[in-house]
Amino acid sequence: MRRWLATGLVLVAGMTKAAPLAIAAAAQPPAPSQLDVQAVYLFDFAKFVRWPEGEEHSTLTICVAGQKGYASSLTRLAKGEQIDSRPLAVRVVQTAADVTGCDILFVGVSAKDQETAMLAATAGKPVLTVSDIPGFLDSGGMIQFVVIDQRVRFSVDLRSATHSGIGLSSELLKVAVKVNGASGGTP
Predict the structure, then answer these.
(1) Domain 34-180, what fold?
(2) Scanning 43, 116, 161, 164, which has its CA 20 to 30 A from the CA of 29?
(3) What are phi and psi of 79, to 5 degrees?
């Protein structure tokens, strides 16, 4: 009887500890979407970029082409935030002519038809270009989102960044799955 009572108490104690965990787990918001994760990455990339001296404008502007969901997520993230004492602004762009004044340009898959023109408009200018379009780095982009094992990751092309006068922190490069153009690294 004592053995049964002791076992019963252990089970009840375990259930009382597990019940709040189960309730808390059920109350958890759904996992963030791929879009949300990429928006957070995009916001965080700004913390690891060094623009050429004299190119820092009073506002750090993140421009989004082709993914209105990114703009919404970024606007929520950027509200009241600053990076290097610069307030953040998010702007939706439709064409290559709209990218003037962008510090970071995200070209979404749904704007693939604008990819070449937008990369041409930013070539040689201190604008960090980011996309989730396959082959974006081969087209001259700087950072490309990739999904590996259902996790959002990214690859970097240092040659494109360097050509535009942008420096990328070694901390950012450490977490990239692939870095093109790194000395002694991947071609």
Answers:
(1) Rossmann fold (3.40.50)
(2) 43
(3) -55, 115
